[in-house]
Amino acid sequence: MPRDTLTREQIVAAAIELLDAEGLEGLNMRALGRRLDAAATAVYWHLGSKDDIIAGAADQVWDEIPLPDPDADGWRVAAAMMARGLYAMVTRHPWLMQAFGSYVLSGPGKARHDDHILAVYEAAGFTGEQADQAAAAVFTYVLGNALGPAAAASLTRKLSRSGDARELMRERTARSRELASQFPRLRSRIDSAVMADGAAPADSFEFGLQALLDGLAQRLA
After folding, report:
1. CA distance 66 to 126
2. How many helices (H) and strands (E) does the chain have?
3. Looking at the chain, which residues constitute the CATH 1.10.357.10 domain(s)?
4. pLDDT at residue 1 greater than cutoff 80
């Protein structure tokens, strides 16, 4: 595709698809050009560098998070909706967790999200620095929970390049279970039906989110 028929939006959308499939390590101008049926130089002409493409893709995905009205829904419902939306977004795009540690990510999408979340906590009654602290507490809680899925996605891609990913994952899981079985509390959880796969209970994210919001509500009280 010639560069004058490409658009920035097309490149960013294709970059997100490539990043979702291959992670940060799979993104390069040649691969992106193939996905767009365009020369790598055409991609460079629109966005300049790989860093610019990652920044553009990273900012675009913030628009996927709903921005509820705290006046209509109540601050706590709005805060929970945004936390769930953030968790869904970062687990849908696990490469973003990788990018946080390697790139300076800023843009209108993230700024719009950050401004709205501050409005939610201000509507609750937090002022100034307290609103920032409340927003940061929930934000870091969500990112901490998203680390596991992001790491699993990265590991699966890595194993896929070196052989049968499922078999390698089974071997690693078996070794982890063998190690955990040496400790009584871990062993009891591995042996239980609920924790048979070694994962946390399905409602762990919601449990922690509500506990955190309970704490913030108590501080307001």
Report:
1. 21
2. 12, 0
3. 62-220
4. no
Which contiguous run of DSSP H or E holds residue 167? helix 165-180
Chain centre to alpha carbon of residue 210? 20
CATH for 3-48, options being 1.25.40.10, 1.10.10.60, 1.20.1050.10, 3.30.750.24: 1.10.10.60
- d(CA 182, CA 138) in angstroms, rounded, equals 34
Tokens 């071997």 belong to residue: 171
Q: State the residue for tokens 């919601």.
A: 206
C-alpha–C-alpha distance, residues 164 and 183, integer Å = 30
Quick: pLDDT tens for 135-163. 999 999 999 999 888 777 777 766 666 66
Q: Which residue's structure tokens are 């079985």?
A: 181
Q: Residue 168 and residue 170: Cα distance in Å, rounded?
A: 5
Nearest to 59 by CA among 121, 3, 15: 15
Q: Which fold has domain 62-220?
A: Tetracycline Repressor; domain 2 (1.10.357)
Residues 42-87 pLDDT 10s: 776 776 788 888 999 999 999 999 999 999 999 999 999 999 999 9
Structure tokens of 109?
């999408």
Among 48, 154, 49, smallest CA distance to 101 is for: 154
Residue 98 is which amino acid? Q
As a whole number of angstroms, the distance between CA 96 and CA 107 comes to 14
Q: What is the mean pLDDT of the chain?
A: 85
